[in-house]
Automatic annotation (TrEMBL):
Record site: Important for catalytic activity: 136
Top-level taxon: Archaea
Entry protein name: 3-hydroxybutyryl-CoA dehydrogenase
Transcription regulation keyword on record: no
Residue ranges of every copy of the 3-hydroxyacyl-CoA dehydrogenase C-terminal domain listed in the record: 183-276
Residue range from the parent sequence: 1 to 285 of 343
Start and end residues of each 3-hydroxyacyl-CoA dehydrogenase NAD binding domain: 2-180
Keyword match Iron: no
GO molecular function, one term: NAD+ binding
Keywords in alphabetical order: NAD, Oxidoreductase
GO biological process: fatty acid metabolic process
Positions bound to NAD(+): 7-12, 30, 88, 93, 115, 139, 268
Amino acid sequence: MKVAVIGSGIMGSGIAEVFAINGNSVILYDKYEEALKKGLDNIKWSLEKLHEKGKLNEEPSTIMGKITPTRQLGEFYDIDLVIEAVPEDFNLKAQVFRELEKKVGTNTIIATNTSSLPITELSTALEKKDRFLGLHFFNPPVLMGLVEVIKGNYTSDQVFERGIEIVKGIKKEPIPVRKDVIGFVVNRILFRVFTSACRLVSGGKYTIREVDSTAKYTLGFPMGIFELLDYTGIDTNLFISREVKKRGFDFDCPLLEELYSRGQLGTKAKRGFYDWSNGRPRIEK
Ligand code: 3HC
């Protein structure tokens, strides 16, 4: 299959990597040269890690060879699937869809990796809405087993079923989502967890480490809640919370605004709720 991924941030590059590992040819687009380079570096690092552990069927260089980086939003007539993975901003995504629609062939499936925005609402940017669906990956895409496949009001049954097959084809477990609501299934739960955790520390009764220690060692989360916010990105989570709050959903964490204004964007900036300059934070039991 020929796939194009739009946006080479953490999610876009990870999605491109997953498709390439599974034998697909991938075009990875980003408007910015630095972002594209960073995305390719992330993929190289990750492929080397997986190779060291014997988890790849091919050499990392062979897999890298399946990924073509570009800064030109080219003619995508022969592309089977385009996945948009730009920041969580309705207007930005809508603009990408409008441009994409002019470049793709009539049979190209257009998917969005939106974390939260209803597919039906996003599809208002498109003229041909029946080939549009959500394919929502989790960070880091190469290690996380699930992908939500979301049907908007206009997504055809055929495209929805094809989405499920595509996810199986990249060896992930599809979660079919027919109720097209803010946050779908996983993030609808997760945003409430984030909001509760933020309220516990904003009230001053608990520290970030206490909440994370509980999440990790009592609730059995693989990471602390604030650790996860850092890991997925303070900016990413802030942009999501702004978009969903506009639509009346309660994902509220004023601490995100504070960190963002100080440039503490999480793991990628080596500072967020935690200091990551010496690696992953130690969360005590
Ligand atoms: N590629 C390859 N290897 C990777 C990697 C990647 N992208 N990321 C981490 N690794 C490697 C690490 O380097 C480490 O290798 P080592 O054994 O050689 O040191 C190994 O994986 C294990 O990593 P860690 O020791 O750091 O820690 P964990 O055992 O905790 O595993 C994790 C890491 C899989 C990320 C795990 O902590 C986890 O599942 N965390 C929760 C992630 C999660 O919930 N994601 C969803 C977030 S919500 C979301 O994405 C939605 C969006 O819409 C916002």
